[in-house]
Amino acid sequence: MISRTQTIYVTLDPFLSLRGAVLHHFDQFLAGLDDAEFPCIWMTGLTRAQLDEPRRRLGHHDPFIGESGCGVYLPEDYFHLKSGKTIRLGRFTCIPIAKPQPAAAEALEDLSTELNISAVSLRTLTQRELSQNTGLPASEAEQIRMRDFDELFFFAGASKSDIARFSEEAKLRGLILENLGPFWSLSCGADLAKCIRELGGLYDRALRAHALRLGIAVSPSTDASHALQADAPLKSLAAACDRTLLLTEQQCTPELESRSGIVDPESGLMTATKNPRAVRESREQDCFYLHSPQVWENVLATILSRR
To answer: Is 88 helix (H, G, I), strand (E, B) or coil?
Structure first.
């Protein structure tokens, strides 16, 4: 039963390796949220097939947002109310934000052909090629291409100017192109902010009150304000949530501390200075040093203080 008024939206991928190993002691955070009975919504570029085992192992029973904002996946009977247009995908009721496959596969093929830029879809690879390109055993590699919405691919022999041209044309066609590191994702309409708002609306209806939406993400930048503006996924997260907590890969530099706040070297928690602008920004988001031994204690304390 949903009885709390805070919902926690977490970017999962920095905390889970492709082999399913938990990173940065993320399981400690999940245990704390379970104790507080706060729903934890995972936001990930992974597929529902890739999440099956981690969800069982970590006891995750809440909804998740999959394939980089393509759809909201609801466990069976999680909400006892209807949510407009939904589709059934395996054991989940899904709110589709992007167009389901084969829309993205066809869009990728058309775009690649018309621009004469070689884009190799993962679904076209042999099992051996797929394992070689992902570095995963056959069964785990196969889960990567079992996609409901987006199409994963890599450029073959494309120059930077080719990729820029590809990106510009994709944008003109209303397609969403995202660089996921070794691979690229193409979808017909992925929208992380819309996913959060759709799911947030369901929580609001279930509670008959507004459920505070708190986003948590990892940023390589120590400048929270800049990160939330420069990084598109982070910007979407901040736009859709009431509050955003950032875990930074590096501690703040003295120059940044003088502008935005002071970081406690032990806790990694940023506190505001008397600078009015810094105080205003600190009300909108908080920063924590990801590698601090007390990082999850501090994050949980911050969340619980706004219960």
So the answer is: strand
Domain with CATH 3.30.980.20 in the chain: 103-187
Per CATH, the architecture of 6-97+191-249+285-305 is what? 3-Layer(aba) Sandwich (3.40)
Residue among 7, 72, 1 nearest 204 (CA): 7
Beta-strand runs (E) in 109-169: 119-121, 151-155
Domain 103-187 matching CATH 1.10.238.10: the answer reads: no
User: Which pair of tokens denotes residue 147?
Assistant: 């996609």
Helix (H, G, I), strand (E, B) or coil at 177: strand
108, burial (CB in 10 Å: exposed 0-12, middle 13-18, buried 19+): buried
Q: How far apart are CA 147 and CA 66, in angstroms?
A: 10
Show the tokens assigned to 257: 């501390």
Give the pLDDT confidence of 227-247 residue by residue, as tens digits.
667 688 899 999 999 999 999
**104: DSSP letter:** H
0.85 exceeded by the pTM? yes
Residues of the chain with CATH 3.40.50.1000: 6-97+191-249+285-305
